[in-house]
Amino acid sequence: MAQINKVIIIGAGPAGLAAALRLQDINNISVTVYELREQPTHLGGAINIPANGVRLLDRLGVYEPLLEGGSIIPQMVVHSINGNELGRLDHIARIKAKTGYGFMRIKRTVVIDALLSKAQTCGIPVHFNKRLVAIDEDSGTSATMTFSDGSCDTADLVLGCDGIHSAVRKLHVDPEITPEYSGISSMSSIVPVPTDLEGMHATFTSQGSVTVVPCTDNLEEKELFWFLTRHIPEPDAADKRDGWNEHREKEVAGFKNTLQDITREIGGSWGSFLHDVVSKTETVNFYPVYRLPRRGVWHTSRCVLIGDAAHAMQPHVGQGVSMALEDVFLLSRLLKKESTPLEDCLRQFETIRRPRIEEFAAQAANNGNRSRQKGPWQMTRMEWGIWAWLLARRVFSLWSWGIREEDWLYDIDEVDID
């Protein structure tokens, strides 16, 4: 492999900042990060990071600040429409016992702040307000980035870490691949609520699923992240962006009525608790869930897509950030193989990563479909199925039945690359 002395990273989200830290620390590569936005983004609510991702954040040296700003989730609790508890998934505690890492729910901004602070401490240049407008691979030996302000930069390798609407993908790597609507949309908010609630709590209703989970543990008043997931048809407007903007305005303006209508179905003290959460909610985020088709190209000779830029999936397995982190750590390992040409390394990267990504993408789509509208008989059948599954796991000690623990125990640094 020709020596990689400099890498340009497009995108200063979790994927881009993690890549910068890893490549500088482990590969001794000079790294520069460019970000479209004028400042670190405060978009997004709270995100899941299972054990397979948390251990990688620890290896990046940001575990402690994340522990201070997030919440470790001990279990998942499923509630019926009547407000009764159908059962609990407690495999999370067993995974923590095996790995030393739990299931973290944390505000996305806290993750970005921790990674950015670490990057600044390490002297990594991060430039904001830099919109990429062109990419030129010079005879396969380097790649030059041109930005809207007229500035340029050249590197041996470019990482597109700029999300589902990646400019690196659209301008250069695979312009034909565009995001597709999943049929599912989400509404969410973070609300300060005085409560001792622990774990992730999910309730399926006839109109969608409602989930609440702590996202901060160390504040005087605990913050809860709630999200409503449901089926919403794609707008008929010729311009989908305008159609969604119009729909978003309606959803945000009428969110109280929507939530009260949905949570009114849920009975008991649990239903009352959800009503209280709704009453304390002042603002919401609404977003249609898009994903990328699985057939896309991930790399050229000198550019490679990382995380959502390559393989954005629905969020219904909670593995988005972890998949990006695994991408970063695998690429770092492959770039240390000095006898292997760069393009062969990038091909191997894609070969190793695709099966795991596609498995999670299929699982996420299946989980999302559970949030589609259901009639009374469908609700009853689903609740009985969940109850029977959870009961069988407990009575017969089938703790791993229906749960692929190996997905969370997975360590990308242990994957064979020879």
Automatic annotation (TrEMBL):
<protein>
    <recommendedName>
        <fullName>FAD-binding domain-containing protein</fullName>
    </recommendedName>
</protein>
<dbReference type="InterPro" id="IPR050493">
    <property type="entry name" value="FAD-dep_Monooxygenase_BioMet"/>
</dbReference>
<dbReference type="Pfam" id="PF01494">
    <property type="entry name" value="FAD_binding_3"/>
</dbReference>
<comment type="similarity">
    <text>Belongs to the paxM FAD-dependent monooxygenase family.</text>
</comment>
<dbReference type="InterPro" id="IPR002938">
    <property type="entry name" value="FAD-bd"/>
</dbReference>
<dbReference type="GO" id="GO:0004497">
    <property type="term" value="F:monooxygenase activity"/>
</dbReference>
<feature type="domain" description="FAD-binding">
    <location>
        <begin position="6"/>
        <end position="361"/>
    </location>
</feature>
<keyword id="KW-0560">Oxidoreductase</keyword>
<dbReference type="InterPro" id="IPR036188">
    <property type="entry name" value="FAD/NAD-bd_sf"/>
</dbReference>
<keyword id="KW-0274">FAD</keyword>
<keyword id="KW-0503">Monooxygenase</keyword>
<keyword id="KW-0285">Flavoprotein</keyword>
<dbReference type="GO" id="GO:0071949">
    <property type="term" value="F:FAD binding"/>
</dbReference>
